[in-house]
Every structure is written in structure tokens, then in C-alpha cells.
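Quick question: who can interpret this fold?

. . .
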Amino acid sequence: MKLPPPRPGLVIRYAFLWSHEARKGAVEAVKERPCAIVVAARKGTNGDVRVIVAPITHQPPADPTASIAVPPEVCRKLGLDSDAQWLRIDELNGFLWPGYDLRPLPGRDTVEYGLLPEALFRDLRMRILERQQSRQSGRPINRD
């Protein structure tokens, strides 16, 4: 499987673990989904890269301030289906790249859908930082 270098804004297919699943003791995700890399940072001297990802879901948000609607044209560009989709800013997973939970796109030899538009990525990053600074969101779930 072809692995791209991790970079902020890249949308990947990933087995995302929701916080409600983790609270119940789950360590494996129920479903693979598109997720946007929010942070990709080198850690230590061995070159490890720690990434933090935000999930994309069809589930309409219970709290509209905890999600960003993904515009239909962005969904098309990424190859996602035409149903409404949201980027969750209140749910995050963190792991060392490439980790165990990357999955190839159906019928393809890659994990990447493509890049978010710069403006959408900036909004995602800004809103995640605002929620964390105001303590509205917990820490990312560690998936290592």
C-alpha cells in the first residue's frame, strides 16, 4: 500500500475510535472513515511523526458548534459520496505515523483521498484550538 507523507490538511482513510467507544473500553474502531490530519509533528531524534486526526462523518451534529459542514464540492473533489458530511472538531485521535489503523481506499492502493482546501483547513485548525483553549474538548485519544 502506498503511504503518503503525513501533512496537515491531508484526508486519509483511518479506523477512527470515538470517545464514547473508548470510554466503554474499546480499543478498536467499529468503522473506517475519512479523517483529516490536523497536526503532523516530528517527535524526538528518531524521526517519528505524531499525527492528530479529525473524523469526517455523515452523522448530523448534535452540537452544531462541534462540527464544520464539508461543502459538496469538497466532497466531490475528495471522492466522497454526495450525502451531507461534517468534520468533527470535538473528537480527535492521535498516533505515530503510519500506525496500525490506516486503511486503503476501497479498490485502491493508497490511504489518501486528497487535501482539504486551505481555507477549510485553517477553519478546522482554528476551531479545534479555540475549543481546546476554552476546555470544551478533551485530549485526543491515543491510538498507539
Observations:
- Residues 10-142 form one domain.
